[in-house]
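QA checklist item 7 of 12: single-chain prediction sanity check.
[x] sequence parsed
[x] length recorded as 442
[x] structure emitted
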Amino acid sequence: MSARVTDVAPGMVRDVVVVERPLTWRGTPFSLSYVHLDREVSGTELLEIYRWAARQHLENPRVISPFTLEWSSVFHPRFHRAAGRAGLASSGAWEPASEPADDVALQRLWLQSVLFLSAVTLSAAIVQSRYSKGTLASKYDRLWQAGRMATKGLIPGLAGEALMGDVEAMAHAPGIPDVERLLAIRRRFEDVIGLFEVPASVREVRMAQTSLSADLRPRFAFIDELKERIGGKLVCVIVYGSSVNSRHFADYDLVLVVQDPETVLRRLHATSPGFGGKELNVGIYSPDELWRMQCLSGDNLAGYGLCIYGETRVPAKPEADLLMRNLSFGIVRQRQQLGMIASALADAPDPEDDRHNLYEYFAKIPANIAKGTFGAAGQRLTKEEAHQWIESVCGFQTPRMQQLARTGEPGRALAESAVATGAVLRALNERFSVIRPSRASS
């Protein structure tokens, strides 16, 4: 059900459509206000549109630019069709440049992107206690979406109604310890992700322990402590990120492959492990879970990770698949940025508030997208190189906006970052030719 708002801001806003969403696990009506723009806008203009939406008392405003709407034809086709039915005109549609993909495949790409980005943070939620009521709610939302799409036949083998029933029961069950609730959520994500077919183009690669150079051995000398904490369940440890490729780094990023991940996660719950004064950010998976998650990722772990203990198998995906997934992740993240601006405008700056730490993370989304997409094409950018490239593309200064998100004006930082995300995605597509205007609509 939708309704139009006729009193729109002149000059930028073409139309506003208020859509009442079907009931979810929340059990209360939920409306979204889609604010359709005439053109692409600057961060300052985007912020003013959200302030105008607040004055109009629009519920849950979502700003939709021509770019967002057109690219959704590839990266969220169900939304693109729904927007058309609601009268939000799109000047064109796009398609993958490398090989044709039917509507079902594109819908699954969107769902896989949403589920991967939600599931990949669950280890940190448990081990580093990086979660809140909002975190849990967002996980329920994603599982509910998966259940609804399963009822339409998009996830063969998944009983959608049963999953939605599970989500509703989990969300409203009282007295469950947080770690058990998070583990139950994780279980459902793994069940859903395990049902996606592995493309025929995926190859198996073995990652095995590498002999470290003398200067790297002290850097990664935490293996014995990990083995002691985890017991005999540790199978493999892979490190990646700045601790591997930079002399100076703030923390460690690790994948721990283990037997019985739930037992290990309970042992590490809320321990926030560290080494040498730096945090160990761990993703914890069984061998099969790692394989399934890596099939949905936007990178090939064997291409940039360093195995420092044990061995495991990982998938190797073709470049075209990696590029599509990275742009898909970028579109999902931009929609999340746009959804957060209204609440950020209402928040008082507080450096100790977890929400503001979240805002800081979303302020660096353009850099994450750039690094991931260049990496998919075999070009590894340092953090500094990614920041410089983004500033050359659209003038966005990542460190400055992160600081602003944390201690100053999170709404402005998110607005600038959302606009930069769109500019970065367009620039990356121009560079790597991932999607093109649809020949069928031309």
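[x] summary fact logged: The longest strand covers residues 306-316.
[ ] second reviewer sign-off
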